[in-house]
Structure formats: structure tokens, C-alpha cells
Amino acid sequence: MTDTLNVLENITYNELKEGDSATLSRTLTQDELVLFAAVSGDVNPVHLDAAFAAESMFKERIGHGMWSGSLISAALATVMPGPGTIYLEQNLAFKRPVKLDDTLNITLTVLRKEPRNRVLISCNVHNQRGEQVVVGEAKVIAPTERVSLLKPSLPEITIAS
Amino acid sequence: MTDTLNVLENITYNELKEGDSATLSRTLTQDELVLFAAVSGDVNPVHLDAAFAAESMFKERIGHGMWSGSLISAALATVMPGPGTIYLEQNLAFKRPVKLDDTLNITLTVLRKEPRNRVLISCNVHNQRGEQVVVGEAKVIAPTERVSLLKPSLPEITIAS
């Protein structure tokens, strides 16, 4: 039996149909705030310092807007179309802040298949209250060959407390 | 004497002028590949597995496209306009892969000041060979009040080898 949780499988250009959709969910934890600050270099205290954020217009720590963008890119790269996808374009409109412990639901929908394996995909991110957080569109080159591969396991990452 | 490396200072809407530009540089290391995979969930082996990547069309491990996007967002949030900026929109076109040890130079240029503190900013990312990697535009609400604050230091992050 294949453990589907540990397999990355794609959907080829030929298999994709307009209207097809796929979802991915993820919760914003303190670890994501620290890791995204480290990997992007955006160390604004509104993302990192609870006391500072309490005095800000957001009243509490918020996620980096582009973290939501990175979840969209992960959904494209791992779910639909999945491995072998080449990212051409992405536009994003940030509609609402993401708070600590919010769960984001990313929904991708195939809007249009274009020549030369191009696919236009709508990208919608809602929080657990159903509020739209980010909306946008992606253009990708969908894979033409079926790929199924074991999900690499990441080395352990430790954040000092 | 203020250590400017440890201070985040912004540029207000009133201070910004069309044509103003700012830059930020960053090098893609193996750590970024692992951390971005962890924080986004995009664990595609083309970013993580040297042997797999060698057999791919890219011939070696490449950075996540949205990592370049995250550098743009960090430049907007920490350099120009800096702290207090509210991110409204971003579009990105991914032009070339980023290889391990590539140094990316992010250049932001004010394209247009709009009513209600909106600013349209062009975003250009080149590698150390001067090749365009990512190009796009951001729309932000620029801060109206001067902010100068100490850069929070991140907790130590350890990646098991």
C-alpha cells in the first residue's frame, strides 16, 4: 500500500480540466513567524514581538503577507499541478491580516488551459472564519509527464526558546 | 552612535518621491532551501535533493520561486518604505531559476504616488551575473509617521545535518 501522505504526485496538462480545484490547509504558528522572518529577512516586530504588536493597528502578531503567498506556491508545486510544474507568474492581493493560530485554506481552481501547456489558475486563501485573506492568479507550465515521487523528509529544525 | 544595521527606519509617504530606489541583497544557501521548504510546505526534491535535481531540467538544486518573492516583501517591509508599510498587492513574473550560492539583488523603484498614501513600486531581482530573475510591481500603503525601531533579534535556528 502506498502511503499517499508521503508521495508527491502530479496532474499533467492533459489531465487538467477547466474548473478542477484542489485545496491545502495550514495553520500559522509562532514557528512560522520566526522561520519566515529568518528566511526572508523581514524581521518587523509586528510579526515577532507580542508586546510591540499589541500596540500596533493589528493588536496582535500577524503573519507575513508573503507567507500566504508561499502557501499558494506550495499548493501549486505539491498538489495541483504538482511536481514538474514551472512557475511563470503570480499576482496577489492581500485582503486581511493573518493572526497567530489562524488556519488558512488555499483553494486552487483551473481557470483556463492555454497553448504550450500553460495553465491559468485562480488562487483563493480564506481563514477558518471563511474570510478572504488573499486572492490572486497564477500562470504555470503544467507538467506533461506523470511524476510520482517520495516526499523528501526535511532535516530537523530547532528554534531556541 | 546608532548602529544602523540594528535599526529599522522607514520612509514616509510624504518623503517618498517618484524615481526613488532602494536595494537589498541576499545569497541563496542550503539553509534557505530547507527553511523555505519547511515554512511553505513545498518539499519538492528539485529544491532539496542534489541527486534528484542533477537529473532535472535545472541540473542542480534551485531556489523556490516564492523565496525571491519573499525577499521583495522583506525589502518593502524593512527598507523602502519600511516599518508601518501595509502590503496591498504584488505581481511577480519568474524569469530564471535561482541556483545555490546565487546572490540576488533586489531593486525597488517608486513608480507612482497615488491618493490615500498608496504607492506603486517596481520590483526587480537580478542575480550576480546581472540576469533578471524576477520582475514585478507592488502596491502598498506607505506609512505616514516616521518610525525608527530596534531590529528584533531572532532566536537561534538550528538545522540538523
Structural notes for this entry:
2 copies of one chain form a homodimer. Chain A is α+β, with helices and mostly antiparallel strands and 161 residues long. The first copy, chain A, has helices at residues 30-40, 45-48, 50-54, 65-78; strands at residues 7-9, 21-27, 86-94, 103-113, 118-126, 132-141, 148-150, 157-159. In chain A, strands 2-4-5-6-3 form a 5-stranded antiparallel beta sheet, covered by helices on one side. A two-stranded antiparallel ribbon of chain A has the order 1-7. Chain A is globular and about 50 Å long. Chain A starts with 6 loop residues before the first strand and ends with a strand. The model of chain A has no long low-confidence stretch (mean pLDDT 95). Chains A and B meet through helix 1, helix 2, helix 4, strand 3 and strand 8 of A and helix 1, helix 2, helix 4, strand 3 and strand 8 of B.
Please tag this protein with its features.
homodimer, 4 helices, 8 strands, alpha+beta, two-stranded antiparallel ribbon, 161 residues, 5-stranded antiparallel beta sheet, Thiol Ester Dehydrase, Chain A
> What is the chains' assembly state?
homodimer
Q: Just name the CATH architecture of the domain at 8-28 and 63-145 in chain A.
A: Roll
Overall body shape of chain A: globular
Distance linking N and C termini of chain A: 40 Å
